[in-house]
Amino acid sequence: MAPVTVLASAFLLVFSLLLSEARTLLERKKVRLATTDRSFHLLGGISTSLLVYSHPVKATPLSIGLPLRANLLSIVSEKCKNKGLFGVKKAKYADTSPVFIPPSDNPQMNEFMAVDTSGEFIRHLCIEEGRAICAGATSRNKRPTEGSPHSEDMLVVEGMLRGRPQTRFHALFDGYQGSDVAKWLAEHLATYLNDIRDVNADEISTQFARMDRDLRAADVSGGSSALLLFIEYQKNPGVVEAAGRQIIPQGALEFITVAEAEGGPLLSSVKVNFKRDPEAQRGIYLIHVVSLGHGRAFIKSGKRIYPMTYPHTAESKFERARVQSAGGTFSLVNGEMVLGDGIPVTRAFGSYEFKKEEGGGARQSDVISAVPDVNVFFAYPGDSIIAGTQGAFAHTRTRGTLRSQLESYKITRETVVDVAKAMVVHAKVRKVAMNISTFVGYLPDYKLKTRMMKEGTSDQKGDEYFSIDRTTELSAALRKGTFSFLLHCP
Question: Where is the signal peptide (predicted)?
Answer without folding.
Answer: 1-22
